[in-house]
Amino acid sequence: MARIIDGDKMNLIGNNVRKLRKKKKMSQQYLSNQLELLGVYVCRGSISRIEDCSRTVTDIELYAIAKVLQVDMSELFEV
To answer: What is the pLDDT of residues 19-44, one digit of tens each?
Structure first.
């Protein structure tokens, strides 16, 4: 299957997830725990891989991450 994005990146939001999480003084574990409360199971290690763009993100995870970080989903894509 052809990839939509070129290079080694597996997602487009990782850097912004990290910036927004740190801005809100959240640990990766806290973000993981809050996602679990929404029924979205993403372990702390997977949060790390999302942030370094080595893991893909599903639409459900994208929605939940934005909700936990209290941002519009479009903010996760801003350059």
So the answer is: 999 999 999 999 999 999 999 999 99
14, 33, 58, 61, 72 from 29: Cα distances, Å: 16, 6, 19, 15, 22
Q: Right CATH number for 14-73 from 3.40.50.1010, 1.20.1330.10, 1.10.260.40, 2.40.50.140? A: 1.10.260.40
Cβ neighbours of residue 22 closer than 8 Å, sequence gap 6 or more: none
How much is the CA Rg of the chain, to the nearest whole Å? 12
Predicted TM-score (pTM) of the model is 0.91
CB 75 within 8 A of CB 67: no
Distance, in Å, from the CA atom of 11 to the CA atom of 52, rounded to the nearest integer, reads 9
